[in-house]
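Tutorial handout. Part one gives the primary structure; part two gives the three-dimensional structure as tokens.
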Amino acid sequence: MPHTDDKPSDGPAPLAPSAPPTSGEPPSGEPAPGESARPTKTGPEVIQAYLKTLSSGPGVYRMLDTGGDVIYVGKARNLKARVSNYTRLAGLPNRTIRMIQSTASMEFVSVRTEAEALLLEANLIKRFRPRFNVTLRDDKSFPYILIRRDQGAPQILKHRGARTVKGEYFGPFASAGAVNRTINMLERAFLLRSCSDSVYESRTRPCLLHQIKRCSAPCTGEISLEDYGALVEEALRFLKGESQSVREMYQRLMEEASDQLEFERAARYRNRLWALAHVTSEQAINPEGVEEADVFAAYQEGGQTCIQVFFFRVGQNWGNRAYYPKADRSLSEEDVLDSFIAQFYDDKPVPRLVLLSHEIPSHAVLQEALSIKADRKIEIRTPQRGVKSGLVEHALTNAREALGRRLAESSSQQTLLAALGERFGLPRPPRRVEVFDNSHIMGTNAVG
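Part two.
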């Protein structure tokens, strides 16, 4: 019987296949003695057989081919009504017809609300990567800046993965490069240590970072732990969005030191002001009134879609990243963006505001689902004017340019592969090139 348990499913636990109805011929056909138990029938008749026992509540369904592979994952407010749409081919897009004709069996999970169905759908799509779904190809977690607070002298470092270390996390940043540049400038401004605990505990004299004025060297007592803690608090204030007050404080201290003819101390504050100014100038745009938001813009050309994502935290631009989700050419920008966002936030924290370049079909449900996930109110908007609209336009321009570069690179690669195939007399251009690097030491110790 199809699984219709009303308990919500909130994780990617294995789901038992739904057995076909007991009355009538099974959707997959009964295997003859000695034959494989795999389904042999496909198409609308297989789907029709499941309708007798399906509930009319919300849930998630999976379509499987004859090999048992998941080819599509979908959600529905009414499972029975949604699945019944797949029993008639007339008027459906070619992509949907191909999907139905490839379906040999189905599996179902009932949940309490449509929002829960959306979250589970996104989780299963990322897990199974069905060929008829929009799939997000992203195997990297976003980097964060971490200021560890579990030692006497807190350490600043780049962090990925689970937040198991005690401390303050700031992010996400779009790339490791963006984190490294920011940490570099924060070291110059606040002289925080970035060395490991083992190095910190074994130092007997200050390291090179202290000599080039990028660390205050608490390891050897060049600064007291109390004064070092004050530097840490100033760095935290800056990362939490109080950059203007921190700059004003350093400006005042520099002027006071100068008035007292303590020019060396004044120079230290001046250098920190320069470093802070460099951090903010590295960020392309710093919008007024946008403290915490992610900006998504989708652009299509040549059968491909580019989605550009910008991250804004504490009023600062923390970088952007371009994605190229796998999607059928027939899907619109709105449909690709709709499915992409749900998968994007499956394993990432959600900001209070999400700005989009297009109105998406699941706007209300997605907003509710993300609010449930974040345990606070999340707002999704498609701005038409003002500062927020400018942010979206900027992201859309970046998406258009990124996709243009990708298409140009793809065209160049195809030309090179065609020429390579012609030069070596291949029947068709090569689809894969393998390179082997063999090294040795004067003819010995060969390594491939």
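Part three, for discussion. The chain is about 40% helix and 15% strand. The chain has three domains: 1-133, 144-282, 286-448.
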